[in-house]
């Protein structure tokens, strides 16, 4: 009879241990499922699906800090392209310079005003000169804020009878500002300065 009681007690303990293991396993499984669910929800919230030309494209939202160097380089390139792309048309010059001045502080406006006072833009129009710029590279230092940059570019000045190539090197600092339609990268160029602007070669047309 005591043996039966011992068997029942052993069976009860075994069942109790088994049930505890099952309960703990269920709790761990539920916790893991909740964790993965929240993780998946967080990933999904950073994805946007765009319908373009009948195709669904996936866009991923990212923090600005993830691509600071890339955005600063593109901001600097956009500024230089707008500031130095000129045609013998007063309206085109004004539109391009206005776009550029949204991306920089008073240091850029000062250079623009100096060029205007020296009749640089008037001479372009009267002589039917076009100017283009190719940004070769932009170096960005992210170790200190505001971010220092140095831009290396080549100017192409197209005259009626010749084309002049000039080397242009500028430097400045980029600081964070609010994004807008006029400033999509959310940076402002400060203390912009020209380090080098000299002739490279002259080609006859």
What would you say this structure looks like, in words?
The protein has helices spanning 2-45, 68-84, 90-101, 106-117, 120-126, and strands spanning 47-52, 55-60, 130-141, 147-158, 162-176, 187-204. The chain is an alpha+beta fold and 205 residues long. It has two domains: 2-49 and 52-59; 64-204, Nuclear Transport Factor 2, Chain: A (Roll). It has a four-stranded antiparallel beta sheet with strand order 3-4-5-6, with helices on one face. The protein has a two-stranded antiparallel ribbon with strand order 1-2. The protein is elongated and about 110 Å long. The relative contact order is 0.11.
State the gist of this model.
InterPro entries: Conjug_transposon_TraK, VirB8. The chain is of the alpha+beta class and 205 residues long.
CATH fold title of the largest domain: Nuclear Transport Factor 2, Chain: A
State the CATH architecture of the largest domain. Answer: Roll
- Provide the number of structural domains: 2
Main sheet makeup: 4 strands, antiparallel
Beta-strand portion reads 25-35%
Provide the fold topology:
Layout: H1 2-45, E1 47-52, E2 55-60, H2 68-84, H3 90-101, H4 106-117, H5 120-126, E3 130-141, E4 147-158, E5 162-176, E6 187-204
Antiparallel strand pairs: 1-2, 3-4, 4-5, 5-6
């Amino acid at each position: 009879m005591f043996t039966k009681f011992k068997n029942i007690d052993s069976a009860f303990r075994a069942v109790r241990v088994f049930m505890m293991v099952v309960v703990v396993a269920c709790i761990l499984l539920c916790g893991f499922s909740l964790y993965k669910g929240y993780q998946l929800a967080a990933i999904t919230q950073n994805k946007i699906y765009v319908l373009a030309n009948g195709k669904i494209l996936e866009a991923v939202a990212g923090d600005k800090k993830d691509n600071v160097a890339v955005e600063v380089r593109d901001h600097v390139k956009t500024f230089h392209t707008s500031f130095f792309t000129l045609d013998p048309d007063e309206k085109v010059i004004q539109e391009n310079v206005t776009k550029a001045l949204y991306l920089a502080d008073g240091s850029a406006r000062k250079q623009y005003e100096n060029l205007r006072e020296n009749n640089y833009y008037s001479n372009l129009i009267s002589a039917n000169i076009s100017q283009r710029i190719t940004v070769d590279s932009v170096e960005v230092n992210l170790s200190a804020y505001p971010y220092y940059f140095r831009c290396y570019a080549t100017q192409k000045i197209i005259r009626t009878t010749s084309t002049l190539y000039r080397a242009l090197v500028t430097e400045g600092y980029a600081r964070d500002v609010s994004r807008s339609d006029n400033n999509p990268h959310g940076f402002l160029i400060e203390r912009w300065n020209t380090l080098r602007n000299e002739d490279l070669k002259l080609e006859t047309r």
